[in-house]
């Protein structure tokens, strides 16, 4: 799974963004300041850094310079400083992209995927039953042909593939696909989306083999 280091000192932003990115198929860890960020970079393997400029110790520009000089990891600045000077300085120290707060989560995910593609840091492709999911490209393939899913169908499939072999209750699925933007998903809607998803990815939707019903418990992908 693609690993993202989020360097941000606003706890609320960290909580919301980590949860949203997890649901989009990204593994995210957070660092609140410059020193903690550099320690995590030294001791881990990362595919991308999301970086605020204003940190509780140091600043994002210094972290970005260190990232590019020592670790070679792509960087997206995520900050409230949207003035021209801040943008130019960010690119001058090696940022790959820049998005100002407040931002739309889906736009951020799109920018993350674009930067990862440009830097050839595509995440692991998850496969089962002839279905493959590339969480970086945001694509789904069935027996070599692309399957086009709605945003909620795609998120639901990611939940199943990220929990392969685990029985997921309906309540758990409802928790997982709740959108950070506030889209409401109820039990009836979940039933509809599971049916739609099966219609698109199963060889025989009436006898599903990828997403199976576990009677009295919920649903499961995998063996």
UniProtKB/TrEMBL annotation:
Gene Ontology molecular function: any one: transcription cis-regulatory region binding
Binding region for DNA: 123-223
Keywords for this protein: DNA-binding, Phosphoprotein, Transcription, Transcription regulation
Listed PROSITE patterns: OMPR_PHOB, RESPONSE_REGULATORY
Domain Response regulatory: 3-116
InterPro entries per record: CheY-like_superfamily, OmpR/PhoB-type_DNA-bd, Sig_transdc_resp-reg_receiver, WalR-like, WH-like_DNA-bd_sf
Cited Pfam families: Response_reg (PF00072), Trans_reg_C (PF00486)
Residues of the OmpR/PhoB-type domain: 123-223
GO biological process, one term: regulation of DNA-templated transcription
Modified residues (4-aspartylphosphate): 52
GO CC, one annotated term: cytosol
Role of this protein: May play the central regulatory role in sporulation. It may be an element of the effector pathway responsible for the activation of sporulation genes in response to nutritional stress. Spo0A may act in concert with spo0H (a sigma factor) to control the expression of some genes that are critical to the sporulation process.
Protein name: Stage 0 sporulation protein A homolog
The species this protein was found in: Cuneatibacter caecimuris
